[in-house]
Write a structure and sequence with these properties.
Elements (H helix, E strand, L loop, with lengths): L18 H4 L1 H5 L5 E2 L11 H12 L10 H15 L8 E4 L2 H12 L5 E4 L6 H7 L4 E4 L3 E3 L2 E3 L2 H8 L2 E7 L11 H14 L2 E5 L25 E5 L13 E4 L3 H14 L6 H13 L1 H25 L4 E3 L6 E5 L7 H11 L2 E2 L1 E2 L10 E5 L4 H18 L6
Parallel strand pairs: 1-13, 3-4, 3-7, 7-8, 8-9
Antiparallel strand pairs: 2-10, 5-6, 9-10, 11-12, 12-15, 14-15
Helix pairs in contact: 3-10, 4-10, 5-6, 5-9, 7-8, 11-13
The protein binds pyridoxal-5'-phosphate (PLP).
The site of pyridoxal-5'-phosphate (PLP) has 13 residues, from helix 5.
C-alpha cells in the first residue's frame, strides 16, 4: 500500500485467546462464522506500538509501575493536536477501561434509586452500569428519520428533570453518528439547566470519516456543566486488550468524586505494557491512523455499494464515525430470532444482534468492518448468496 501500512494483510487470530475468534462457540454456538462482532479490529497495531511493547518486554522485571510524565504529555499533545482541546495534567485520571469508569461515574454521582439517562440504541454496558448498581434507567431513545439518527431534545428535557447523570456516547455506538456542535450545545444547555452531570464516552472520537468532525463536549467553554470525558487509544490503535484509558475532568470536585470510587476499590491501571503502548500510540501512531481512516472509509463505501446493488433488503445507516456499521434489516420483515438464525446459520456470519443495544435495535444488526477488505467482502458474498437462497423465486 502507498501509505506503507498493509491493512490488507490477513493475520490468523485463532488460538490467541481472542474474544472475537476464540469466543465464537460461546457466542454463536459454532466456530466457523466469520467474526464481525466485538469491537476490535483484525489489523496489526501501529509498528511503533509493537516495538515499544517488545522493548518493554525485553526488560525482564514486570513490577509495580509509575505513570511517567511522558505518558500524560502524550495525551495532552494528542488532545490538542487532534481535538483542539487544551487540557491540564491535573485533569487526567488514568483508569483501566472506559466501562469500569462508566460504572464508577454512576456510583459517584447517583445514589441507589436515582436516575440515569441513556439514549438507545446504545452500547449495552450503558444499560448494565445503571441496572447493576440499583439505579433507575431513564431512556431517551434516539429518533430515526430518513436513515439518520438524532437526539429527541424535547423528551430529553423531560427526562432531565428527574435525572442526576446522562451517559452520552459520542460518537455514538452503534448508529455511527458524530454529534454536531448545535446538538452538543443543546444537550449542554439542558444538562446545565437541570444540574445533570454528563459522562461523555468519546472512546471512538479518533475514528471519524472524512467530511465529519468530532467535537469534544467539554471543550465548549461557555457551559458550566459537570462533564467527565472518557478517551482511550484502545479503539483508535487497536489495543483494547491492554486496558488503559483516561478520564479528563476539569472540575476538581467532580474529579474527586470519581477518584474516590477508584480508590475505594483500589483499582489501578498502572501496567508496564499498557503504559508503553499508550504512549507510543499517541506519540508515533498518527500516520498509521490517517491511513487506517482512508482504508475504513473505502471499506464502508464498498459495503454500502455492495448491499445497495445485491441485497436491497438491507439498508446501511450512513456511519459518520466508528468502524461499526448499523444495518437496517426491517424492510426484510423477519423477527429478531429469524435474523439471528439467518446470519449465523445460513450466511455463516457472526454479527452483533441489534437487540443487544436495546429494544430500538430490533430489526438491526451491527457489522464490524475493522478487518482486511477481503474478509469484509467475504461477509458480503455470504450475505448475498444466503439472501438469494431465501428469495421466493430461488430455484435451487
Ligand atoms: C462506546 C464504547 N465505550 C466503551 C467501550 C469499551 O471500553 P473499554 O474496553 O475501555 O472498557 C466500547 C467498546 O466497544 C464502546 O464502544
Amino acid at each position: 500500500m502507498s501509505s506503507g501500512f498493509d491493512f490488507d494483510h490477513e493475520i490468523n487470530r485463532e488460538d490467541s485467546n481472542s474474544v472475537k475468534y476464540d469466543g465464537r462457540q460461546a457466542m454463536f454456538g459454532k466456530n466457523d462464522v466469520i467474526p464481525v462482532w466485538v469491537a476490535d479490529m483484525d489489523f496489526a497495531a501501529p509498528p511503533a506500538v509493537t516495538q515499544a511493547l517488545a522493548q518493554r518486554a525485553a526488560h525482564p522485571i514486570y513490577g509495580y509501575t509509575l505513570f511517567p510524565d511522558s505518558l500524560y504529555d502524550s495525551l495532552i499533545d494528542w488532545m490538542q493536536r487532534r481535538h483542539s482541546w487544551v487540557i491540564q495534567r491535573d485533569w487526567i485520571v488514568l483508569c483501566p477501561g472506559v466501562v469500569p469508569s462508566i460504572n464508577a461515574a454512576v456510583m459517584a454521582f447517583t445514589q441507589s434509586g436515582e436516575s440515569v439517562i441513556i439514549q438507545p440504541p446504545v452500547y449495552f454496558p450503558f444499560f448494565s452500569a445503571v441496572m447493576q448498581t440499583g439505579r433507575k434507567l431513564i431512556q431517551n431513545p434516539l429518533h430515526l428519520a430518513n436513515g439518520r439518527y438524532t437526539i429527541d431534545f424535547n423528551h430529553l428535557e423531560q427526562c432531565a428533570k428527574d435525572a442526576k447523570l446522562l451517559l452520552l456516547c459520542s460518537p455514538h455506538n452503534p448508529v455511527g453518528r458524530v454529534w454536531q456542535p448545535a446538538e452538543l450545545e443543546r444537550l449542554l444547555d439542558i444538562a446545565a439547566k437541570h444540574d445533570v452531570v454528563i459522562f461523555s464516552d468519546e472512546i471512538h472520537a479518533d475514528l471519524i470519516y472524512p467530511g465529519n468532525h468530532h467535537h469534544t463536549l467539554a471543550a465548549f467553554p461557555e457551559y458550566n456543566a459537570k462533564i467527565i470525558t472518557a478517551v482511550a487509544p484502545s479503539k483508535t490503535f487497536n489495543i483494547p486488550g491492554l486496558n488503559l484509558s483516561a478520564l479528563i475532568i476539569p472540575d476538581q470536585s467532580t474529579r474527586n468524586a470519581v477518584t474516590q470510587v477508584f480508590n475505594t476499590l483500589h483499582i489501578s491501571a498502572s501496567n508496564p505494557f499498557s503504559i508503553a503502548a499508550f504512549e507510543a500510540a499517541y506519540c508515533e501512531g498518527e500516520a498509521w491512523l490517517e491511513a487506517l481512516l482512508i482504508y475504513l472509509r473505502d471499506t464502508r463505501d464498498c459495503v454500502e455499494a455492495f448491499l445497495a446493488k445485491h441485497v436491497p433488503e438491507i439498508k446501511v445507516i450512513k456511519a459518520e464515525g466508528t468502524y461499526l456499521l448499523w444495518l437496517d434489516c426491517r424492510e426484510w420483515n423477519r423477527t429478531d430470532a429469524q435474523l439471528k438464525h439467518f446470519f449465523i446459520h445460513e450466511a455463516g456470519i457472526g454479527m452483533s444482534p441489534g437487540t443487544l443495544f436495546g429494544e430500538e435495535g430490533s430489526g438491526f444488526m451491527r457489522l464490524n468492518i475493522g478487518a482486511p477488505r477481503q474478509t469484509v467482502l467475504s461477509v458480503m458474498q455470504n450475505i448475498k448468496q444466503a439472501m438469494q437462497n431465501n428469495r421466493p423465486n430461488h430455484l435451487g
